[in-house]
Amino acid sequence: MTYSPALRLTSASRNHPGLLQSISGNNESRPTSSQYWTVLITYRQLPSNLKSKVDWMAGNQGNHWKRASLELRAAGFEPESIAAKNNIVTVAGAYTNAHRCNNRVERISDLLSESIARHGGQGLLVGAPAVSDALTQGSANANYSLVSRDIIADSFEIGHRAHHGEAMVVISGCDKTGAAAMMPLARTNDVGLVIYPGTSSPGCVDFEPWASKGNNLTILDWAEARAAMRAGRISSEEFEEVERNVMPGSGTCGAMFTANTMSTITEAMGMMLPRGASHPADYDAASDIHDDVKAQVEATTQALYTLIEADIRPRDIMNIKGFENAITTAYAMGGSTNMYLHLLAIARDAEVDLTIDHIQQIGERVPLIANLQPHGPYSMVALHELGGVPIVMKELLDNGFLHGDAMTVTGNTLAENLADVASLDDLGTQDLVQPVADPAAQPNNHITVLHGNLAPESCVLKLGGKTLQTGEFRGIAKVFENEPDAMTAIQSGVIVAGDVVVVRNVGPKGGPGMPEMVMLTVELQGRGLGKDVALITDGRFSGVSHGILIGHICPEAAEGGPLAAVLDGDTIVIDPVTRTLNVDIEDDELNQRMAKIGPKDLPNTIPNGSVLRRYALHVSSAHYGCVQ
């Protein structure tokens, strides 16, 4: 459909409270879709001079891009053809040929543009950088990863507005683009939805400890195989066999790591079509995109036009019910700790009152029911073949964990979407998704928000379904000011069972950019220390990480937080039951140490004009989602 003047007035009024009052003196509140005819009458009754003002504010004088005939011809468009288009749709995606996570975005963009054209619209492409953690982790360039989230969101917002887009389809991908995909939709509240390029297909080998996993090997198995080879636990030939077979094609990291956590959150919130979070990206590296992705492209365009017709907007979906559904589903599936940062950032842009403690309150009641890596044996594609995220959500809805009346981009409620989805009883014998009554892990054994004298604001503990046998972990601190020094200590055998590896000055300001300490966690797992050594940091972790891990410690060390006061040999106490993280010293001793520390300056090696320096200057703590 083409937006009518009255509908445009409704849209503008919904996004600009007080618009009608400012143009006519009326004390009209923000109109909703149900008030369409009231707005239409109001518009018709306005004198001509005020109608002109309304038209200018609401865009009714005609889309500026469509009317720019000189620019259109110069860019290769025919103005007469463009004038007949019913909607200008931003197709936003972070394409690169540099890595597997987003190298299919261009193909999807082209298919979306063709599909939009078949529906009478015009797609306009908007790009952004895409950072792969798989290529940056463990290097100095890992600092750019989290920084890119806001740059991607800003790029999509800028392109959409500058090109006068009327609706939006955003292609996600790696985890930062997964979060960034929803942020401009939340900011603009223009009709739109998200589509996922897909996850990587799994692989298999015929020797243990991997053969028993079947066709479920992911990048986690490769990373731990590499650490095992370095420790002499497998041969170089066995490692090469894993590497050649673990990931046959493109796509994001293939289990419940951060990218799939964010795709799951997007689908569960209602901003992506059902079963859109789990499909494989392709068949192999040389193939075209997967048929399921092609089907999602056409279905996404159809959904977009349904949303336009019904005037259902992102904030009609991205409300507190949508966020609570997303949090619940991510916890039930064993999502990444990065979801805390991204959920808080998306909520800020959607103007939803969500805090880190609210996420904890929702998550702590949810059992872990999906046996996906890193806590279980299965890949995301295995879940897709079973029926995808809707299988998990059906079990949660049937047991009272979800808001069934939440709106989604199908134009239907969540309960309506799930009505015909198979139940676990319908599926028969399988152990990928377990019933709520017999979960893989009881509630509060996955991710927990802790406080204490080392985390006055907060920190995040990841157990991934494991329980601590003694109820707490007490260990001896071995302190490192950066990731490379900690890695050297682990690889040289300095770290032993009972230790707590402390890595500080790697937070959002201290890093800067809050890099992931995943290589350290992989090294600990590969050396058989994952259950006996804890790692605490003001940095963050990858979804691949598992063990006894605490990240996001706030305030961070570089801001003068208590983590900066920890000394080698201190006893660190982690207690999931009381939800505390403490250094076991007297308050007076901690206060004396704190009096000697303060904020830490960035190194001179970071140029004054660098995006990293600007980020460190403006970014909030992880407690608030590292927003700017």
What proportion of the residues is helical, as a percent range?
40-55%
SSE-based structural type = alpha/beta
Quick check: average pLDDT?
90
For the largest beta sheet, what order do the strands appear in spatially? Answer: 5-6-10-9-8-7-11-12
Q: How many distinct helices? A: 27
Strand content: 5-15%
Shape: globular
**Sheet having the most strands:** 8 strands, mixed
Number of DSSP strand runs: 12
Query: Runs with pLDDT <50, length 5+?
Result: 1-38
Distance between the termini: 37 Å
Radius of gyration: 25 Å
Descriptive account of the structure:
- The protein is an alpha/beta fold.
- The protein has helices at residues 5-15, 19-24, 36-45, 48-58, 64-67, 69-74, 79-83, 105-118, 133-136, 144-162, 175-188, 219-230, 236-245, 258-269, 291-310, 314-317, 320-333, 338-350, 356-363, 380-386, 389-398, 414-418, 424-427, 483-491, 518-526, 587-594, 611-618; strands at 88-93, 122-126, 167-171, 192-195, 447-452, 455-462, 473-480, 499-503, 534-537, 548-554, 571-575, 580-583.
- It has an 8-stranded mixed sheet. The protein has a 4-stranded parallel sheet with strand order 2-1-3-4, sandwiched between helices.
- The two termini are 37 Å apart.
Write the layout of secondary structure elements.
Elements: H1 5-15, H2 19-24, H3 36-45, H4 48-58, H5 64-67, H6 69-74, H7 79-83, E1 88-93, H8 105-118, E2 122-126, H9 133-136, H10 144-162, E3 167-171, H11 175-188, E4 192-195, H12 219-230, H13 236-245, H14 258-269, H15 291-310, H16 314-317, H17 320-333, H18 338-350, H19 356-363, H20 380-386, H21 389-398, H22 414-418, H23 424-427, E5 447-452, E6 455-462, E7 473-480, H24 483-491, E8 499-503, H25 518-526, E9 534-537, E10 548-554, E11 571-575, E12 580-583, H26 587-594, H27 611-618
Parallel strand pairs: 1-2, 1-3, 3-4, 7-8, 8-9, 9-10
Antiparallel strand pairs: 5-6, 6-10, 7-11, 11-12
Helix pairs in contact: 1-3, 1-4, 8-15, 10-11, 11-14, 11-18, 12-13, 12-25, 14-17, 17-21, 24-25
